[in-house]
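Homework help thread (please don't just give me the answer)

Our assignment gives two proteins as sequence + structure token strings and asks us to describe the second one. The first is just a warm-up. Here they are:
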Amino acid sequence: MILANSVSCTPALASGDRMHFDQLKRRQFITLLGGAAAAWPIAARAQQPERMRRIGVLMAYADSDQEGQAFEAAFRDGLRRLGWIEGRNTRIDWRWATADDPESIPRLANELVALQPDVILSHSTPTTAALLMQTRSIPIIFAFVSDPLGSGFVRSFRAPNGNATGFIVMEPTMAGKWLELLKEIAPRVNRVAFLFNPAAAPYARYYLEPFTATAASISMEPITAPVRDASELETVIAGQTREPNGGLIVMRDAFNDTHRKDITSLASRYRLPAVYPFRSFAAVGGLFVVWKRADRQFPASGDLY
């Protein structure tokens, strides 16, 4: 799991080195958000015990999604352990936008900003982009963003110079690692499709470039496989089996996460070797996952708050 703090990044992390979340001291992320007055240190809380802080949360899941519910529980637990108790000194306003309805994201972002919360937790790249279109003053913490620099969310890791900060999900070189691992578990594979949704993953090129470069280095054919809605999933996955020795890499984006059961079921039905980004894919039948629990990112977001 790759983690970066875009407010107070160490030189090693700023240069791209990876850090494991479990090795980090979570309290080091209690820092200023988007400027000197945005954070609420423990001393200030002691002086103003009755003030209710308002948190907005914009998710890229339906509220019934089990993965989204796990994120919600993890975030609430992270806040609770730091002394932020809902109903006593915090109020949380949740908004749930589904990956199948990208037009709902700007509408819900507008709703949250209109509430004027003290801080907003943003789930993904599309939700963060929508929130930043609405406000440049309310602090925004992004929890699952792949390329905050390329997306224009921050100016640099060391000095973001804006109202957004948060976490990088994983380095782009992971796309090459996925490909190498797929080759290890299925040595005959020589054609690999890289599955993503363009609306949910406007940062796709961030991973496609190392994916393509790695494929060339190990004599594999890289196939870019964008899917724009769920009806296209079977066409893309079945297409990989029309010729022998096909494989599949599922990129992490909110659309693929939402349709993880459909994707794993189709890969199983067509007997297509596949690599998945999160353990939640294994829970619905995915056989090879190279990342651990994604909900561990959300308690860290509570630490930043």
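The one we have to describe:
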Amino acid sequence: MTTFLNLNLNPDNLLSPLTALASTFAAIRPILSSCSSFNQTSCLTYLPSLLPCMAFPAPDYAAWLHHLSPTGSQIVISFLPEITLAFMITYLIGVVAVELAENRAPKVLAIECWRAACWALVFVSLLYIIQLLGPIHNAPVARDYLYVSKGLVASKLFVTVASLFVLHLSENYIREHTRHVLEFSIVILLGVLLLLILVSANNLMLLFFSLAGFSLNLYILILYDGADAASREASLKYFYLSTLSAGFILFGILLIYVMVGDVTYYAIRFYMSTTIDSSTATVLSAAVLFILLGFFFKLSAFPGHL
């Protein structure tokens, strides 16, 4: 038996939170009447249809409802900085490969690659500033794997500016190093791209994969001076601790998936808003504890700073 939601989403009927709440109850009533036993499983079955009407209303409700399902062009515009950065990384890798094949001096090529990476971060930062100056509507995109909001755009702008500051301070390191360190700037750009995906993640698995990819870039940067004993020791410690923390995070995500049946933030928020028993609350608390402990190890924060 299939039940369809017939919501009256006329903007004139959605002028206040009370009318939005009434629309929610009107949508749920057919489900309750058609189900002989209404439990959490059937509730999660209708989660994708119920979430749009259960979210908090925005001042411009019609525009908010429209942007809950953005078009492909809107998704491209929202993530244009990330797409641009990915294109620039690919372009730099191709240029480096071609120039090395033509016997170009690696040291000179490393300086030019560093300069191009700095300009790439400047251009991406300008794109984020342009996005902040324009209208941004909070909405999940890409099948709820990513999320768009003005606060997240500001966070990504902070990431790019901080990365530009770090890359700019690396000029003397690149110029004075005994090796050509040609891939140094590209590794940093790739780490920045993964951090931007991490900020926009709306799914726990996407969050984990972006964090794991960023950790791989840190392995390379920490072991960059492999001839130094301190560099080898630091890379070995970070490798083992990062592997341990990845296990903690994955175990926490597994517990959440077993209890909730989904790992998107919307599904977790909806499940936590329902009435749950004490045993389920204990398992979810343990899952959050494992995830936080894994992040503490990743960030070398207390108590995972040793």
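TA reply:
I won't write it for you, but here's a hint about the kind of observation we're looking for: The first helix runs from residue 17 to 34.
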